[in-house]
Amino acid sequence: SSSSRDESLRDKRAWIQSRGLPKQKPIEGVKQVVVLASGKGGVGKSTTAVNIALALAANDSTKEVGLLDADIYGPSIPKMMNLKGNPELTPKNLMRPLKNYGIACMSMGFLVEETAPVVWRGLMVMSAVEKLLRQVDWGQLDYLVIDMPPGTGDVQLSVSQNIPISGAVIISTPQDVALLDARKGAEMFRKVHVPVLGLIQNMSVFQCPKCKHETHIFGADGVRDLAETLGLDVIGDVPLHVNIREACDSGQPVVISQPQSDAAKAYLKIAKEIVRRLPVPPA
Amino acid sequence: ERSNLAGVRHILLVLSGKGGVGKSTISTELALSLRHSGKKVGILDVDLCGPSIPRMFRVQDNDVHQCDSGWVPVFVDQDKSISLMSIGFLLEKPGDAVVWRGPKKNALIKQFVADVAWGDLDFLIVDTPPGTSDEHISTVEALRPYKPLGAILVTTPQAVSVGDVRRELTFCRKTGLRVLGIVENMSGFVCPHCSECTNIFSKGGGEELAKHAGVPFLGCVPLDPQLSQSLEEGRDFIQEFPKSPAFPALARIAQQILDGTSQRSS
Predict the structure, then answer these.
(1) What are the pLDDT digits (tens) for A246-263?
(2) A150–B130 C-beta distance less than 8 A
(3) Complex confidence, ipTM
(4) Do B99 and A248 touch (CB under 8 A)?
(5) DSSP B149-203
(6) Which residues of chain A have pLDDT under 70?
(7) pTM (2 decimals)?
(8) What sign does the dihedral B35-B41-B42-B46 (CA atoms) show?
(9) What's one GO MF term for it (chain B) (predicted)?
(10) Quick check: B266 pLDDT over 50?
(11) Nearest CB to B18; choose among A40, A74, A242
(12) In whole angstroms, what is the distance from residue B135 CA to residue B113 CA?
């Protein structure tokens, strides 16, 4: 009977240890979650997330798409989607996402003043992320695209521990320092058992609008090499075009405002690749 | 007992709020410029998730050793005029990810500030990660008793960056950190073929922010593929490419910092 006592002790210990961790539960109404991350800052996560969300809707008008800006410290989505203002509350006390171009959006940027910094330690960030995930009336979504902040810390952990993620896409620019961090990003998802769908090479090459001369400002092919090392695929290549940045700065992302441009076509193609690589959605 | 920072004359932080604007690049080039003016410089890299500094000096494979007073910083060359400390040196493999929550990060940052035997330095540059989070709060708190000179804020010209940097300015105000000035990085690209300048990431956002916030504007640094390449290869851009487009701006930034400190002591 000492062995059954040991076993019950072990079970009790496991139960006590698991109590502290958040339970992973899907968000009601959301079929699949795609996360855009990088590890490195400033490689174009938000720009890409916004254009991919729009591209997913553009490729298949029957799909409902939502966009969650999980960058608590530097929320860029409101500016890029031309949205402002505090979210309304539903009768059930959930926040109603703000909508533009048919995409339902939620961001910390809607909850704090534009110039106010969010100087929070990790614990508060955890609870803010939980609110942005669960206390929002997302309705019925086929895809929820989550734009992650840079780094491999509290926010990334909180999101992956809280909800099941269908797939993660890692974005990088070709330079070494970005690739170093992208690799850490991929490693982080491996640690928390989130499948990585592939890498996107952003800002790959710049073509002078006047003389068409191509310059690889941030290096070349670094992302392809990294993909090979990690055994992942490059699911997209987006060049440096002035119009991508201009469009986002003015709140009219290129997929909506210049759908015939090379940049928009690149994003539409990436969105198709993502859908192809996601597991079959639940009915 | 003499603190490890007692021999450091000036401490300055490089902040942004926005990721990927070139904080580590500016930290590195500032250190190299100051070295060329005969100063001894240290760089403390408190970006625990994405430490870029070791790579930019090509010493990413070096180890950190212990001495009586704590950790010995990694010297960039025989000259010993630039020394570095970063979590990058403490990782077993370069691909290892540091997936930590706040309290663990805070503990390491406190150690980085108190337990690195810097010796005598003219400048200690502290390179930070993007955001206004645990790392920033802990770093500013830990450095407060040593009265840092102030912070340089780096931004790219576009609206989303300027927005984040505006928040960082408020952070500095709230924590009593003096703002030495704003640098507008990646400000324009001059085609090496036809010399046409394209404002890939827009232009003027940083300068406008500086004017609006009443802080000094330290200058515009253009996009320069030779600069990116130097950083990839761990080369001394200031020494090797004085004719490159980014050189004048970077040299000017270092000069303004030096002028600021000489004014203070006179």
Answers:
(1) 888 889 999 999 999 989
(2) yes
(3) 0.71
(4) no
(5) -EEEEEE-SSHHHHHHHHHHHHHHHHHT--EEEEEE-S--EE-TTT--EE-TT-S
(6) 1, 16-22, 282-283
(7) 0.82
(8) negative
(9) 4 iron, 4 sulfur cluster binding
(10) no
(11) A74
(12) 12
Query: What pLDDT is attached to residue B50?
Result: 87
Q: Which pLDDT score is estimated for B181?
A: 96
pLDDT at A248: 87
CA distances from B236 to A49, A126, B84, B123 (A): 36, 41, 15, 18
Q: What is the pLDDT of residues A166-204, one digit of tens each?
A: 999 999 999 888 888 888 889 889 888 899 999 999 998
* Helix axes B102-114 and B134-143, enclosed angle (nearest 10): 30
- Mutation target to probe the B interface, by most B beta carbons within 10 A, among A180, A203, A207 is A180
Residues of chain A in contact with residue B193, where contact means CB-CB under 8 angstroms, are 208, 211, 213
Instruction: Please tell me the CATH superfamily of domain A27-277, with its number.
Output: P-loop containing nucleotide triphosphate hydrolases (3.40.50.300)
Q: Provide the residue count of chain A.
A: 283
Q: At what angle do helices B159-175 and A242-249 cross, to 10 degrees?
A: 60
The length of chain B, given as a count of residues: 266
Residues of B in contact with A41 (CB under 8 A): 18-21, 50, 129-130
In this structure, what token pair is assigned to residue A31? 């079929």
pLDDT-above-70 percentage for chain B: 98
Query: Nearest CB to B55: which of A121, A176, A219?
Result: A176
CATH of domain B8-261: 3.40.50.300
CA distance A235 to A213: 25
Q: How many CB pairs under 8 A join A and B?
A: 205
Domain coordinates of chain B in residue numbers?
8-261
Contacts of A211 in chain B (CB under 8 A): 191, 193-194, 196
Domains of chain A, by residue range, sit at 27-277
